[in-house]
Design brief:
Strand content of chain A: 5-15%
Largest interface: A-B, 46 and 46 residues
Number of helices of chain A: 16
Oligomer: homodimer
Helix content of chain A: 40-55%
Strand order of the largest sheet of chain A: 5-2-1-6-7-10-11-12
Number of strands of chain A: 12
C-alpha cells in the first residue's frame, strides 16, 4: 500500500492507475490545465472520456490543487503529454524529494541542437542531478491495460532502488513488470516506434489503393520488410545515443513497435498516407488525434542533421528520412527498399 | 538470362518462379512424386492448385523426368517440403556441380541427437563439402511474391559467389534481395518463426474466448509481449548454433516473424489453441494444412533436451517450452510471462 500521485490525466496515465488501484494503493490523479473536463468526468462518474471507460474511483484533482494531491505521496507519476513535460516538472518540483521515486509514462524526445534528450533526462535536468526518473515503457496499449488485459511493461531507471520501488507498486497478476537500467535505449525506442509504426502501415493503404480489399492478405511482405528495417535503424539510433542493443530486441523495442502496428493511431495515420493522401489531408482526416510520429520525425530530423554535420552519424537511415519526407514534406510514398540494411 | 531448375512444386517453390520468369530466365519446375496433380495442373492451365493462382507458363516436369529438366541448368533450386529434403538431395546429386549454385526455399531443422542442423547443411552433407547451398529466407508470403507484391528477401550462403549468383537471378523491381553469410542464423530463424508465430496468435484466440469480438483490439499487449520474448529466445538459440545477433534483428528474424504472424497458417493454428481447443482438435480443424510449427517444436525439444543434458544450454527458454507443451502435449495455454526475459 502506497500513496501514488499521477500528474496528468492522459489515457496512459489514467490506464496505469487501474493496476495501481487493484494493488490497493491510494491513487490520486492531478489533471493539467488542459485536463479540466477529464477531471470533472472522473469526479462525476469515473468515466475517462478519451479511454471511453469507467475507471476505479481514484481521487481526481484539478491542476491548482496539486498540493493536496501530493500530501503523503510516496511515488510521483507523470502522465502528461510530451508537450506538458516542462509544466509537469515545475508542478512536481516543490514536492520532489530523493525518497519519492518518480515514474514517467510520458514518452518523447527533445533535441538541444547537438544531442537527443530523452524525457526522463529532461525532467532530471529540471529537478536536479540527484533525481533518477524511471521510464515506464513496453508494448502496452492504454485501453488494454485499463481493461486488465495481460501486459508486460518495462521500468527503466539508472537507480536500482527507484526502479525496484516502481516495479513493486505496479506489479499485479495481469501487469508483468521487467526492470532495465537502459533509460536511454528504452526511451528512444518508445519514441521512435511511433514514427516507424506509421511507415509499417503504408503497406495497408497501398494495398487498398491498388484495389485490394481492406483487411485481405496482400502486402504483409512490404509491411514486415519495413518492420525489420525499422528495428535495424532503431538499433543504430539507440547505439548513437548510448543505449544498448538488447533493448531494441526486447519489450521496449520490437515488442512496442509490434503493438503500435497492431493497435495504434500511428497505423491508422500511416494507412492514410499509403492510400495516397498528402500529409496535410491525412492529418486533417485524423480529426485532432495526437500524432506523436510528427513530433518525433521533426526532432529526429533536427538531431540527424546535427549529427551528420558533426560527423557523429555517417551511416544512412533511409527509412527514417523517407518517413520524414512523406509526413513532414508531403512527398508521395516510395519506399527506398534498395537502400535498406546498409 | 539463365536456366533455372526448381525441384519441388511447393507453393513457395513455384511462387519464387514468378520473379525468375519476369527476369526472363528459362525456368523449369520438377515435381516430387507427391506433386503429380500440381504438375498436371501447371501443364494444363498454369494454375497452381495450392496458391490458387495462374502462374507464368514455365516448363513443368514429372519427378521421373528430372534429367530433361536439368539439361543446361545453371542454377538448381530446391522447393520441396522439409520432409522431402533427402529425396531432393538424391534427385539433384547426379546434376550438382560446383559451377551450379544451389538455392533452397525449403526451410527446417534436424537434430542429430547432439546438434541442430539447418537444411542447407543437411544438403551439403548429402552432396559433399565443396557445395555451399544458399538459403532463401525473409518475410515472404508465397501468395504475395507470386502476385508480384513488393518483397524483401535474404539469400544466405557461405560462398560469396554462389549467393551473389542467386541474388542476381532473383532480383526484380518488386523482389529486393539482400545477401548474408550467416546461413545458420538465417535458417534457424526461418524455422523457429513458425513455432513462435503460433504462440503470438494465442492472444487472438484468448481474446475471442473471453468474449471479445474477432478482430477487435483487446489482447495486442499479450501478443506483442510474446513477440518480444520470441525474438529474445530466437537470439539465444541462434547464438548457441553459431549464428549472429544481427540476423535476428533483421529480415530473416523479426521481419519473418512479423509476416508469419500477420499472414500465415501458424497464426490461424495458434488462434485455435488460444480459443482452448486441445492440440489434437486444433490440428484436425486445420484440415490437413502443413503445420511446420509441430515439426519444429519436436526437433527443438530433442535439441534442447540434449543441450541441457550436456550443459551446453543453461539459460531458460520458457516460451518455447510452453509452446511445446501446448502443441505437442495438449496442455492448456497459460503463458509464463513472469519467467520471460531472464
Amino acid at each position: 500500500m502506497a500513496v501514488i500521485t499521477m500528474v496528468g490525466a492522459s489515457m496512459m496515465g489514467c490506464a496505469v492507475c487501474v493496476p495501481l488501484c487493484d494493488r490497493g494503493h491510494d491513487v490520486r490523479v492531478v489533471g493539467t490545465p488542459f485536463d479540466r473536463k477529464t477531471v470533472e468526468s472522473l469526479r462525476a462518474t469515473g468515466l475517462h472520456p478519451a479511454l471511453k471507460l469507467e475507471l476505479p474511483r481514484f481521487a481526481a484533482f484539478f491542476h491548482d490543487d496539486v498540493g493536496a494531491a501530493m500530501e503523503g505521496c510516496e511515488v510521483i507519476a507523470l502522465g502528461v503529454g510530451s508537450a506538458g513535460i516542462e509544466w509537469a516538472t515545475d508542478a512536481i518540483a516543490p514536492f520532489a524529494t530523493s525518497s519519492r521515486p518518480i515514474v514517467m509514462v510520458t514518452k518523447g524526445l527533445r533535441c538541444d541542437g547537438t544531442d537527443l534528450l530523452v524525457l526522463p533526462d529532461v525532467v532530471r535536468t529540471g529537478l536536479g542531478e540527484r533525481f533518477h526518473p524511471v521510464a515506464l515503457c513496453g508494448p502496452c496499449i492504454a485501453g488494454e491495460i485499463a481493461r486488465r488485459a495481460e501486459s508486460c511493461v518495462v521500468v527503466a531507471g539508472r537507480d536500482p532502488s527507484s526502479r525496484a520501488a516502481v516495479a513493486a507498486v505496479l506489479r499485479t497478476p495481469y501487469c508483468h513488470v521487467f526492470e532495465s537500467d537502459d533509460v536511454v535505449g528504452v526511451s528512444v525506442c518508445a519514441a521512435l516506434k511511433n514514427a516507424y509504426a506509421m511507415g509499417c502501415a503504408f503497406g495497408i493503404g497501398l494495398h487498398e489503393k491498388n484495389g485490394g480489399r481492406a483487411g485481405s492478405v496482400a502486402m504483409h511482405n512490404y509491411e514486415s520488410a519495413v518492420f525489420a528495417q525499422a528495428a535495424f535503424e532503431m538499433q543504430r539510433i539507440v547505439r548513437l545515443c548510448g543505449g544498448r542493443d538488447d533493448t531494441v530486441l526486447g519489450l521496449a523495442g520490437v515488442g512496442d513497435l509490434d503493438v503500435t502496428n497492431n493497435g495504434g493511431r500511428m497505423g491508422r495515420f500511416g494507412r492514410l498516407l499509403g492510400l495516397g493522401l498528402p500529409a496535410t489531408e491525412a492529418i486533417a482526416a485524423m480529426e485532432g488525434a495526437t500524432l506523436e510520429c510528427l513530433e518525433i520525425l521533426r526532432v529526429m530530423r533536427d538531431a540527424t542533421t546535427a549529427w551528420r554535420g558533426s560527423g557523429r552519424l555517417s551511416e544512412p537511415l533511409p527509412l527514417l528520412d523517407h518517413l520524414a519526407e512523406v509526413a513532414l514534406d508531403d512527398a508521395p510514398v516510395a519506399m527506398p527498399f534498395d537502400a535498406f540494411f546498409r
